Amino acid sequence: MHNLSISDLTIENYEKYRELEHQIGRLYFMYKIIQRIVKLGIPGDFIEFGVYKGFSLIWLAYLKNLCGLYNRKVIGVDSFKGFPEETDYWKFGIFEDTSYDMVNEIIKKSIDYKDIVIIESWFNNSKLPDIFQKETRSLSLIHIDCDLKKSVNEVFYLIEPFLKGTQFLLFDDWGIVEEDIKSCFDTWLHNHPSTTAKLFSTTGITKYYEIKTD
């Protein structure tokens, strides 16, 4: 505190430390969630919707192995073409500075790459449900790293067959356009009365839930 001066109080520093809090916070809480998955004996693989350049995908693989879950897959789904539509907040194609091949090369440099499966696809691909059925039988952790209301609703449709028992539903970008993600989640819960959600942790941007489906 005593090392701060008025010159440090800039929007640039605010954004920098906000992003730092987001990155450290989300990894810490991912670790705590995986520890809880181990403690509760929850079966199932991990899946991430919205891979971008593979940062959190690699961390999920590392953390699950750190917790002894060596036999779990980490599945990543992304079109690698950026956002499929434009909104008042987001531009069409933003985050397109990536590719399937680029992320594969990044992942191969990770010691945990053998656990990672990447599916290159838009979320509304009619073939995805069949692909998921071949890749996994159950899910314990679902990481939603996408910002569009349309995309989040497509994710909810895709995970429908895998809702069972206790699982963790992680929203990475809840706080970017909060009304969109909150609206999606509230509507989804309303339409799924057999599923309850309890907030496990939050940062300035993320919200991670423990959900239970009867």
From TrEMBL:
Transferase keyword on record: yes
SUPFAM superfamilies the UniProt entry points to: S-adenosyl-L-methionine-dependent methyltransferases
GO MF, any single term: methyltransferase activity
Segments traversing the membrane: none
Entry keyword set: Methyltransferase, Transferase
Single GO BP term: methylation
InterPro entries, per the entry: SAM-dependent_MTases_sf, TylF_MeTrfase
Protein name: Putative methyltransferase
